[in-house]
Design a protein that fits this description.
heterodimer, A: 133 residues, alpha+beta, Beta-Lactamase, six-stranded antiparallel beta sheet, 5 helices, 25% helix, globular, B: 278 residues, alpha/beta, Metallo-beta-lactamase, Chain A, seven-stranded mixed beta sheet
Chain lengths: 133, 278
């Protein structure tokens, strides 16, 4: 299998040093790395799962809007970043694997390296406070 | 394929009897096959290349891994650049902001150098490369961006019967836990995969590297681990720290040998060393 571009590798090395959850996907949305903090959200360890196809990891969450209605995938920051190649941010609710509801904020940014080519995307998550939107 | 090392010192030239054996010139290597010459990097070693190896061809290709001074400082003293009958092709990594010409001009212009690039009498052709594959004479060359501050590439040179990989400045271990033990996640690994000869950065000892993370270089231990993961046949430890004497290099290498056992040939790169790859 071909090695990842250095921009992806450096993002993983950075994510590995951070205390908040970070997901890294390829251009198709497949989850190619998540850090230790993100393991709590997924309820699984990266060492155990390895990479996860988009169909698999995206069903682990149930994103909902302020009214509790399901959010369509195209409204999610990471999906928007993958399609627009621009950063996106949103605060919304999720239902975790344990059935617990929480409000989270997500910022996603594209990984576009020196060649100008879209290589993937990164999403960072944190628990939302009342004054965030 | 014949390879000769004209400069293997890192960062700055060092001269004196204490560095005479491994040499004090900065990065420059040349590769010959079928009368075609490639020059890899234009460190101070490139000046000797002209003196000791008169050129019969009218075209020379100089491939720059990056534009740090120790890799270009010899260019201004590379005689073919001042010969109107010569055609010089310089290949260097593309930047997202400035052209190769603009970046080279920072050095090849006053006050750092008296002659402007546009005043060089040779026919000069500049090529911007990124993650590229291109052909020069009998060689197929692959360049990939690698981890080192600023736009930097490594080269995989494939000749008729052998592969030489040149990565003199590289920090694949940059991160919390060093090199990720999964080759898909290792910078530069494709360039080196299965190479007959790999010249790789090994500026530091493992202990020194702990205080120099992010400086863009490797420890001798990381260079060997990288080589092992790439499955190469012969490793040259290069980009020797400028503060290191010959005896200190021997001492570090001896200690490394005592602690490690890799299934490939490994040795310290030495200025003047010639290697024939059948």
């Amino acid at each position: 299998m071909a090695a990842y571009e250095i921009e992806i590798i450096l993002n993983r090395q950075l994510a590995d040093c951070l205390s908040f959850p970070v997901f890294i996907t390829d251009t198709n949305g497949n989850l190619i790395f998540y850090n230790e903090a993100a393991e709590e959200i997924l309820g699984q360890r990266f060492e155990d799962t390895g990479e996860m196809p988009v169909e698999q990891w995206s069903t682990e969450f149930k994103p909902v809007d302020e009214e509790g209605a399901p959010l369509p995938p195209e409204e999610l920051p990471l999906v928007k970043t993958l399609s627009t190649e621009r950063p996106h941010h949103k605060t919304f609710g999720i239902q975790s694997l344990q059935g617990k509801n929480q409000t989270i904020s997500v910022t996603a940014y594209p990984i576009i390296g020196r060649t100008g080519k879209m290589l993937g995307a990164v999403a960072i998550f944190w628990k939302s406070t009342d004054n965030e939107n | 394929m014949k390879i000769k090392l004209w400069g293997v010192r890192g960062s700055i030239t060092t001269t004196g009897p204490e560095t005479a054996y491994y040499g004090g010139n900065t990065s420059c290597v040349d590769v010959w096959e079928d009368g075609c010459q490639l020059v890899l990097d234009g460190g101070s070693g490139i000046q000797k290349l002209v003196v000791n190896n008169p050129l019969s061809t009218k075209r020379i290709d100089v491939l720059l891994t990056h534009l740090h001074l120790d890799h270009i400082q010899g260019l201004g003293f590379f005689k073919p650049l001042f010969d109107p009958s010569m055609e010089i092709h310089i290949w260097g990594p593309a930047s997202s902001s400035r052209t190769l010409h603009s970046r080279l001009s920072r050095y090849l212009s006053p006050p750092l150098f008296p002659v402007l690039i546009r005043d060089l009498p040779c026919k000069l052709v500049l090529h911007e490369i990124e993650n590229s594959t291109f052909t020069i004479g009998p060689f197929i060359i692959q360049s990939n961006y690698i981890i080192h501050p600023g736009p930097t590439v490594g080269f995989r040179v494939t000749g008729k019967n052998a592969v030489f990989t040149y990565i003199p400045d590289h920090e694949p271990a940059l991160g919390k836990n060093g090199i990720i033990k999964d080759s898909q996640w290792v910078s530069g690994i494709e360039l080196a995969a299965g190479a007959d000869l790999l010249l790789h950065d090994s500026q530091y000892t493992g202990q020194e590297y702990e205080n120099k993370k992010g400086w863009g270089h490797s420890s001798i231990e990381d260079a060997a681990l990288f080589a092992s993961m790439a499955g190469i046949k012969h490793l040259l430890f290069a980009h020797h720290d400028p503060s290191r004497s010959d005896s200190q290099l021997d001492e570090i290498f001896s200690e490394f040998q005592q602690k490690n056992n890799y299934p490939f040939t490994y040795e310290l790169a030495r200025e003047g060393m010639e290697i024939n790859l059948a």
